[in-house]
């Protein structure tokens, strides 16, 4: 979706992706359960490192990446899983490089300046990730049962491709790239937003106290914050 040409294939992938994400509970309270579960793992990691330096950006990437993985693969990764770390690493390399190109979106002439164009290096980062996702697609294809209701995004996509056959433009190859789009769309956006928020709170302790006071007042200390707490 992000790294694809705008054509009929793109349109079908987008339609399918939005429908499948909705079916997987995106934007609903079911999603909140998944998020809260991952936050518990994150808090446990933070608790283990009290009084030690901590790379929050890394932790804030693992948490949303696992929320997305639960939807996409129907499972979460252990934080030390080498494949998970590899995907996060590729994602970090990709966004660091692609962010530099932001200015050429606004001023297209900049693409003629060396280093300001979507390079082969960026293509190969995405290809490496898609390669990893192809392995997961294969695993899911082996276990796929057309008689049972698909539980995660990959299984829904397999069902779509197998059921429609020639009548769909979606392929297992295009799926591997869509999985990367979802993984990176759901990881870097959240980790950057949260790390900026934390950084601002560190620089503005008064705001931090105000936020904490509101949480104490509305939610208390005995349960996590929920979207149902919104006024
Ligand atoms: C703070 C977090 C996030 C930010 C700032 C953000 C930002 C954006 C933006 C700016 C767009 C483009 C909208 C448009 O031009 O129509 C977009 C689209 C999209 N985002 Fe996010 N996003 C975030 C989180 C997520 C998460 C967690 C996912 C889940 C995987 C996700 C999946 C998508 C998808 C699938 C689209 C395409 C929607 C469409 O084509 O209608 N995003 N996002």
From TrEMBL:
InterPro entries: Cyt_P450 (IPR001128), Cyt_P450_E_grp-I (IPR002401), Cyt_P450_sf (IPR036396), Cytochrome_P450_fam2 (IPR050182). Keywords: Iron, Metal-binding. Pfam families: p450. It comes from the Eukaryota. Belongs to the cytochrome P450 family. This is Cytochrome P450 2J6-like.
